[in-house]
Amino acid sequence: MKLFIVFSISFLSLNISSQNLSGIDWKLFSDENVESIVVTNETDFFSIDRYNFEMNWNEQLSYSDNIGYYGGIEEMRIYDDNHLITKIVDIEDIVALGEIYFEFYDYNFDGYIDFSYPISQGK
Question: Mean pLDDT in the chain?
């Protein structure tokens, strides 16, 4: 009897969950237009939509005992219509290959472009 009650409750909740999702227009993220930018020590500036990104690369931003010094973006300034909106400092090149990958997309669907970049690699 207890098994039947548990099964009935589980089936009922599964059925309710699937009904709630049936009217949603789902999109595959892999089909979305995600813009990518690779920043290197030669990148001083780039623009995405109405935002301008200015940066200073430092070849000795960080130090590791096993590889020595490696670089990254010492300071990145983000402008909206020529007004400084934020500054981000010390974005490390975590793979120490001289490149930092940024991806731009409206991840939270609020109408404004967002960006992401890796903050860890490996283990």
Answer: 82
